[in-house]
Amino acid sequence: MSAILFDRIDEPGLATIDVYTRRGGYSALRKALAMPREAIIEELKVSGLRGRGGAGFSMGTKASFIPGAEIDKYLVCNADESEPGTFKDRELMQKKPHQLIEGMIISAYAVGANRSFIYIRGEYVLQAEMLERAIAEAKQAGHLGENIHGSGFSLDLVLQRGAGAYICGEETGLLDSLEGKRGNPRLKPPFPANEGLYKGPTLINNVETLATVPPIIEMGGAEYAKLGVENSAGTKLVSVSGNVQRPGNYEIELGISSREIIFGLAGGPEAGRSVKLWFPGGSSSPALTADDLDIPYDFDSLAKAGSMLGSGAIIVVDDSVRVVDVALKLASFYRHESCGKCTPCREGTNWTVNMLERVQSGEATPMDLDIIASVQEQIIGNCLCVLGDAMAMPVGSLVAKFRPEFEAHIEAARERNGLGASQPAVEQPVLTI
Amino acid sequence: MSEVTRFTHGSRIPGWDQSTDPSKPAAAIPDPATTPVPEKLRAAIEAEIAKYPERRSALIPALHHAQEHHGWCSPEAIEQVACVMRLTPGEVAAVVTFYDMFESKPVGKNTIYVCTNISCSLNGGDRILAAMRNAAGDDPDFNIRGFECLGACDMAPMASVNGEYVGPLTDEDCSQVIAQLTAGETPLPAKQLSLRPCADAAGRTGGDGQ
Per-residue pLDDT tens for A126-169? Predict the structure, then answer.
């Protein structure tokens, strides 16, 4: 497989417009500006490119939802990258900022947006500086601004730094933040394609998705679709971290085995340790176990296994770690990051942490595990955004898959604290409405 | 676990459980004639406003500038931002308290975020936070916070030292960071993110060796 996003990634100076242009950069832009807008969207559809931020929605289809009318339209690049375990956009923005900018100009041209924004998380100081410099260079070279290369198309690009809030990676929370407000998610519909930034039609895509646009225009959608497997075309950046020997970003062709990524590329856990569980798509994806290592790494296979590809962040946990600690760590994060707008998320994340603390300290009984499981079920699908689900899915899956370990932990802790054996778990009555 | 308290049970708005004086009129948009704003800060905020179709969009960049100027988002800083942005102090304070990077209490001039999220904690992030706190002692110049995932799990356990990402850290590195900052030096120059090559080493540096 030849690299598409990580091609020459560590070449010195690639972040400058000179080297990037010498390596063929901005030729896709000239090609795109000579194409009709519909043809670009068609190429994106044919390519099968699915959003790389987490939801996995077809980019071409999303772009085709933007109305064609002559009104103010916006393109927003989601560079908030806050999903625990994800750090792929960071490397792209730092080392290939121009590929992102080129992708944004082509995408904005395709949907007729004249203003574009990159919303980058506030913690990424170095990456924001690299982008600012690259934007200035692109303006200087006439790739941004009025009447780009005589095409009659004009585009303004503004970089905004966030200020530390996970929820601003949620597209409507991001829009509120970009409008200078608290980053509370909005009710959908209306979707951003109809009513987004400043109530105008807005196309929002992840950094990696937009950076894939120039190669697709260059090679053609049909050629790109040959990479990967059915319903999961192309290459994907995966961030592998946790208990592995060679953590980092790797570009893979979708559909290779997960074992190949975790062991072949990232080196697996250190000698003498084995994989206990792993999250295939960031900390909000349901956990998988060592039995699932041979699942092909693509959208459909992971969904079939009950999890998701998400942002492509693989977090590996080895057998030296207690699953109770993992569950509590995750739940505490989502409690902290819940914006508080929807009750199931605000209260659900809070009480899940309280219950898991009881489990950890040994005050709980196995019945608490049933309550934890039922709280997770009641969060999923009941909020404006998926932050609550993002806790409920991994925590629910950990309790379901590692219940004997949770119970053993509770019994051992009770004995240590002199509390005696807990009552046997009570069969929950099933309520049907 | 992060100790940033955005959440208290009952509400996310700090002060929700403190009584207010309903007889007091709500604070209005500060009057430019009676609100002195440092010229540099005003110019920076106005430059931000000019970038956007709607001026309120510049609020978060404006607060970054104000925090840089004042060291924290003090009531005075909020008043000044509100004045230039043409918002009420309440509207500005509501945004300040939402975001983790805005400080609503005075803090030391050196800010260190130690990541204590899942991938870093699997590699000893919580221990690094304790070591960092230990090394700084009660020096008021240091603002050390356990922070959520900073997006650098490949260099876990890591920290952001005045915005510079460094890692993977050992306990000894923590005392070195504190010593270097105290001496006004760059923290751990050999462990900075900007020097880190891509892990995907399969010849991604360019085929012709240039």
Answer: 999 999 999 999 999 999 999 999 999 999 999 999 999 999 99
pTM of this structure:
0.93
Structure tokens belonging to residue A328: 């509590």
Q: Does A175 touch chain B (CB under 8 A)?
A: no
Cis peptide before A215 (omega within 30 of 0): no
Whether the CB-CB separation of A399 and A372 falls below 8 Å is answered with: yes
Q: Which stretches of chain A score pLDDT less than 50?
A: none
Predicted pLDDT of residue B10: 47
Contacts with B, A 89-148, CB within 8 Å: 89-91, 94-95, 115, 121-126
The ipTM of this complex is: 0.93
Rounded to a whole number of angstroms, the distance from the CA of B130 to the nearest CA of chain A is 17
pLDDT at A25: 96
**How distant is the Cα of B23 from the closest Cα of chain A, in angstroms?**
27
A-B C-beta contacts closer than 8 Å:
199
Quick one: residue B67, left, alpha or beta (phi over 0 = left, psi -120 to 50 = alpha)? alpha
Q: Name residue A242's beta-bridge partners.
A: A316
Q: Does domain A323-416 have CATH number 1.20.1440.230?
A: yes
pLDDT of residue B22: 75
CATH (residue range A17-225) = 3.40.50.11540
Q: A311 — contact with chain B (CB < 8 Å)?
A: no
Fold of B110-194: Glutaredoxin (3.40.30)
User: What are the boundaries of each domain within chain A?
Assistant: 17-225, 230-318, 323-416
Q: What pLDDT is attached to residue B1?
A: 40
Nearest CA distance, B174 vs chain A (angstrom): 20
Tokens standing for A320? 């030296």
CA distance B103 to B67: 8
The CATH number that domain B39-96 falls under is 1.10.10
What's the pLDDT at B2? 43
pLDDT band at B208 (very low <50, low <70, confident <90, very high): very low
To test the contact with chain A by mutation, choose from B200, B205, B208, B210 the residue with the greatest count of A C-beta atoms within 10 A, namely B200
Beta-carbon count within 10 A of B202 CB: 12
Per cent of chain B over pLDDT 70 is: 86
Q: Which residues on chain A are in Cβ contact (under 8 Å) with B154? A: 87, 239, 241, 247-249
Return mean pLDDT, chain A: 95
As a whole number of angstroms, the distance between CA A265 and CA B204 comes to: 14
